Amino acid sequence: MSWSRRAFLGGAAATVALPYLPSLVRGARADTTPPTRVLFFFVPNGVHQANWGATGSGADFTLGTTLAQLDDLKSHLLVVDGMGNAGGTDNRAGDHARGTGSFLTCQRPSFDGVEVGESIDQVIAAGLGDATAFPSLELGVQSGGSVGICDSGYSCAYTQNIAWSGPTTPVPKITNPQVAFDRLFAGSDGVATAEEQLRRGIYRTSVLDLVKDQATRLKTKVAVDDRARLDEYFTSVRDIERRASGVGACGPEEDLPDSYTLQTHPDLMLDIIVSAFQCDLTRVATFMIGNAGSDQAYSFLPGVNGGHHQLSHHQNMAANLDQLAVIDAWEVERFGRLLRRMSQIPEGSGSMLDHTIVYLSSEIGDGNRHNHDNLPVLIGGGQAVGVAGGRAVQAPGQPVANLYLAIARAMGVDVQGGFGLDGTGPVSWLAG
Amino acid sequence: MALAAWMAGCASGTTDSASDDTDTDTDTDTVAANRTVDHVALRRLNRSEYDRTVRDLLGTTRTPGRDFPVDDATAGFDVVGDGLVVSPLHLELYETAASVLVSDILDRPLESAVDWTFEAEDARFSSDAAYQDQEGGRFALYSGGAISGRVDIPATGPYRVSARVWGDQAGPDPVAVRLGVVGVDTEYFDITASTYNTAQTVSIVVDLREGSANLELLFDNDYLGDGGDRNAYVDLFKVQGPLDFRPEVHPAWDAVMVCDPENVVDPRQCVSEILDAFVPKAWRRPVEAAELRDLMALYDQVVENGDAPKWGLEFALRAVLMSPNFTMRIEPAGAATPTLVDDYTLASRLSYLIWSSMPDATLFDLASRGELNDPDVLAAQVHRMLADSKAEALADDLAGQWLMIRAVDDVAPDFWYYPSFTDDLRDSMKQSMRLQFMDFVARGAPLTELVDGKTVWVDDLLARHMGLGDVGAGATFIQKDVSNYPRFGWLTLPGLLTATSYPTRTSPVKRGVWVLSSLLCDEPPPPPADVPGFPEPDASASTVRERLAAHRTNPSCAACHDRMDPIGLSFEHFNGIGAWREVDQGETIDATGQLPDGTALDGVGSLADVLVDDPRFGHCLAEKTFTYALNRKPGTDDAPYIDDVDKALHAGGFTLESLLTAIVTSDPFRMQGTASSGGDE
User: Fold this and answer.
1) Is B359 on the interface with A (CB under 8 A)?
2) Which residue stretches of chain B have pLDDT < 70?
3) Any idea which architecture A25-184+248-410 has in CATH?
4) I need a labelling partner for A395 at 20 to 30 A (CA). Which of A334, B22, B497, B656 fits?
């Protein structure tokens, strides 16, 4: 990564947001029915709550200071107030780890081991089955804690991941744009002939089949407790096996820019998600703009000179809250830029945004209180797939798990028997 | 025998050595009364281990692991099994890595430059000229046209392409030919020679890529008229190169290709020999005949399909490197009660502990003879392995996490507050920490020097930053005596002090918590939800000390802050990037304080005195290293063993070697437990 040290320039983030990847992709199929997608967008450390949200209710509402920049997108927004996540609560420290481990699982993370629950994005991905080459896509910005200590003794698995394919298996995210780009869009090497490639594809399948056999046979040799790891291995091989074809046929018309900065990294990753949606390589994505409790220093933002987590412990002091609001606004700017990009990509009778539900929230509500109720919840898009936008919704005390159930239903995945600790059934208000 | 032992999952050497009088009396294969041994979970290699393993297996300098997703550390270390799950993303990246590494293996080294001569009349060459013949030891062009032929180019580089040419001269001009490589470069030559005996050699130097090249000689001024018949003849072509050839180092080929399937009579036999030799190294244990047969079946499929033996080997090797046998630390199940692990498993436990990598030939050799699971042998191996440069993995991975070396990569001091902080200074801070830890690894310095050491490794930049004056080391690191400076071991290394600060100021709380949790294993609980940190310095004129004091007047804060603050405040002479200071915001630094037991502190020196005598210090070293070695969060079953290690550490003069030896010879390290249930409770 090429870090641009912009401390002494102090310039605000650019307001003209040109995409890093072209809006056109090569090789996209001209489907008549646009697919429905969902993107879960995680921001760390909660928000400056007084500046967040909206006043008014229903269709008659005014966006608060931080969200005012989204006014042009108002008809695509659902500003939700008052929801909570029981999985984040517990009688011990570690709210960032717990709030993030429960973010999409709505289960309470185990302190002693690594165990929480399957996350809603993975439930949806499993429900959609083999519709796309990648059942889901996990991207982020910060790779992770380098020294092994993340939050109050909890495993870093909770602070670095939000997608969980099973209770003990976090789905790791990619933070290197080139790795993500190559994984999604890289084609064949171009040297081999088509016929050679076909034969090599057959041999590759034989290799993967053998690797699966090895995992299966090793299960009989290892301890009972260890067999699940080999099952993971087996299913992971199976997942990549069915991806043998289809990847590389569609992708952005240009390669990635040569370098990126702390400032442009999130947009670049989000552009990759948009391109993947355009190519219908996946319909389910998660994005972490920072890891749980991130103490990222945003020195390129005007007036911000502390770490994000440090500032989030604002003690109701204006000096801290003001800086926090600047960071919040910058994060929302990334969200808005994403929504605008999607709105400019025609699909069906509308745009990609109409067919994509973008959910934004955080692991806690207020950084000072570490609370897991009254979470900031913002939904963008999805107007063609059952989200009635242009509203502010008060949902005090309602669990986000029920909102997830409604999102899953909009995605065509009906989850039976509730979800997480407190999800009982889909909220009624998503569709208006 | 060794193979059977691995597959059966029992200790290959113990039954033999039990009847062997070299066996030591302490070497038992059962757990002591009232104790049990917990399970070491199956896990994959982490990123560091993957890269070091392919380095040692293939001699490669590639680091595919850097592209893998970050490992989820648990209990402070990214070796703890709970966090090391496998995902489809991992398998995709394993596949990419295997493909690249196998290409390296199959990249045949060129032993010498080529110097080939091709007779122009041989079948390789043909022509599009209307009138030509290919007889009589030359190729004749009676009308305009080109002779061309394809030759193999063994490696990319510059080549000299030559041709021996003469002609029947007629008309106003001499015979003119163009020589070169189609699609690359050609050049015109006038040919004045008119007989075979006086033929001219013309040549051109062209840059060619590995693969094949189409040589061409064009005759394009054919003439037939009053002056006679102009014809061109070519006798031979030469290809020489690459002209910049130097013998290359191909470690991956050398490591694997015991024969070359493209240059033997029986390629299948050769591939079989390659796999026989390579797979046990890659999988770190003896390999069953059936496992090798499966790999050969991949080879057979490719070759029977009409593809080259090299392809067959390529796919077999990919399967080897994508196998869970390679990417994971497979340990066969023990019996119903804790049992000694087999020697190959033990060899891997040992090598991944000290080198973060695969066993070397010595360890494999001991394992194959069933001699490794013996305390004396293990102690000797620890001694040998620490002296090997590969033991720097302990600095990068163990100390990298526990002692915060890796954290230096992530610090972001604010430019306005710390303008002297540069990426060069960051690098120097980090290198200083690595070298300091290597004093424990390779030079046997006692670990008490973590708190009271009086030498530091510095280059000029870091020495100036630390106020140590001009040491005249330039960009190299020298060991500097700091007896006359208020610097104390690891505690005052600038990298640590920066990593335990905020971007804009010091954090006595972070520093206090770090000492308590990392050196005493006595981490205070984080603050209750309603009592967060404290405001920024610009909020008031008071110092950090004064604001912390105000904080401690709250009884719910005091319980923990009474422990953390005096420790953290004793560091206040060191600013947020570890430089010495006498004043902070106009106030003279006060580094005094009082520990809960009444001990007065004044500066880090007094803290060092307290720490070195604190019984929790040695015990914490034992606990941290045990966690790292056993890849699990220690549970109650582990407690008595950690106590033993602590005792051995004291008896062994606090050396890292005594610490590691005590762990490596302990039952939990040499045995596999049955179940993980309850291990963490």
Assistant:
1) no
2) 1-28, 335-336, 526-542, 675-681
3) 3-Layer(aba) Sandwich (3.40)
4) A334
Cβ(A394)–Cβ(A57) below 8 Å: yes
Encode pLDDT of A410-424 as tens digits. Answer: 999 999 999 999 999
For residue B67, the 8-state DSSP code is G
Going from N- to C-terminal start, the domains of chain B cover 1-38+339-387+616-673, 41-109+249-330, 114-241, 406-613
Nearest to B530 among A148, A299, A369 (CB): A369
Which tens digits make up the pLDDT trace of B561-573?
889 999 999 999 9
Residues 6+ apart with CB under 8 A from B146: B127, B128, B129, B216, B217, B218, B219
CB contact under 8 A, A368 and B532: yes
Residues of A in contact with B515 (CB under 8 A): none
pLDDT value at residue B363 = 98
Residue A12, pLDDT > 60, answer no
Q: Which residues lie across from B233 on neighbouring strands?
A: B140, B166
Which residues on adjacent β-strands are paired with residue B580?
B574
Q: How far apart are CA A46 and CA A292, in angstroms?
A: 10
CA distance B96 to chain A (A): 10
Which tens digit of pLDDT belongs to each residue from A38-63?
A: 999 999 999 999 999 999 999 999 99
Residues A420 and A104: beta-carbon distance below 8 Å? no
- The domains of chain A are located at 25-184+248-410, 188-246
Q: What was the pLDDT predicted at A187?
A: 66
Whole-number Cα distances in Å, B291 to A229, B97, B276, B295, B375: 21, 22, 10, 7, 33
The alpha-carbon gap from A394 to the nearest alpha carbon of chain B, in Å, equals: 25
- What span, in angstroms and rounded, lies between the C-alpha atoms of B424 and B428? 6
The dihedral formed by the CA atoms of B148, B154, B159 and B162, expressed in degrees to the nearest 10: -40
Task: Give residues 95 to 124 of B whose Cβ lies within 8 Å of A.
Answer: 95-96
Q: With a cut of 80, say whether residue A250 has pLDDT above it.
A: yes
* Among the listed residues B396, B394, B406, the one whose alpha carbon sits nearest the alpha carbon of residue B350: B394
Domain B114-241: what homologous superfamily?
Galactose-binding domain-like (2.60.120.260)
ipTM of the complex: 0.85
